[in-house]
Design brief:
single chain; 142 residues; mainly alpha; two-stranded antiparallel ribbon; rod-shaped
């Protein structure tokens, strides 16, 4: 429960849309004149309102602040679209490399199995467990 002193300090402001919008415009100028970094949070603090009020009730003021920050909605959208296009190109390249790597792995696995079979055959030949029969042309055959 609030005490009388606290309640007296935090009286709600009367709602006046035009007055609040003018106060926000003045707050933008005060933030710029103070040399502070302009942001929606800084302007809201200067005007004595919440940042969500600016976002939800005064989107034109929020856009003006973003433009002053160099991050207007269109600029952000265009930057994101460019970044997305670059990411898609990079992803396509990586997928191509992955496919080539999988093909290489399949080829190497086949070669590996062939060499393992040959090693088993040669070990058996050395141990005398495998006899090599000459084929018709005189070559040795496994």
């Amino acid at each position: 429960m609030k005490t009388g002193a606290t309640a007296a300090l935090r009286q709600p402001r009367p709602r006046d849309r035009k007055n609040t919008q003018n106060e926000l415009q003045l707050a933008i100028l005060r933030v710029k004149n103070k040399g502070m970094k302009i942001s929606i949070t800084a302007v809201a603090a200067e005007a004595g309102v919440t940042p969500s009020l600016i976002h939800n009730t005064y989107p034109d003021v929020a856009e003006e602040i973003r433009a002053a920050m160099g991050r207007g909605t269109r600029q952000q959208r265009d930057a994101m679209a460019t970044e997305l296009a670059e990411a898609r190109i990079a992803l396509k390249d990586v997928r191509g490399k992955l496919c080539a790597a999988k093909d290489d792995i399949a080829k190497l696995a086949s070669i590996h199995e062939t060499l393992r079979d040959e090693i088993v055959f040669l070990r058996g030949q050395l141990a005398g467990n495998v006899r090599v029969l000459p084929n018709r042309k005189g070559r040795q055959k496994r």
